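Hi all, long-time lurker, first post. I run a small reading group and we've been trying to get comfortable going from sequence to structure in the token notation. Rather than ask abstract questions, I figured I'd post a concrete chain and ask someone more experienced to write out its structure so we can walk through it together at our next meeting. Sequence below, copied exactly:
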Amino acid sequence: MELYINNSFLEINELSLEEINAGTFWGAVGGVAATVGGVALLGTPESTGLTKVAGYSAVSAGITTTIGGIATIANNI
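-- Answer (accepted) --
Happy to help. Here is the structure in token form:
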């Protein structure tokens, strides 16, 4: 398959797709960091409603990113 980008052609084949790193390890690490940050936001004393929403959002995004990173690592093994 060829794509036309910026006045030039880009060939996409299986070899070039295998070279793409989808953030497997760092995606999992970043997901854990987001989860920890979200838990810290939820654990703050006398937090506002906005802090709770941000905490739940960070935990949710962190768990999703961690699972995605681990699934990608497992798929590449």
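A couple of things your group might point at:
Residues 22-76 form one domain.
Residues 49-76 form the longest helix (28 residues).
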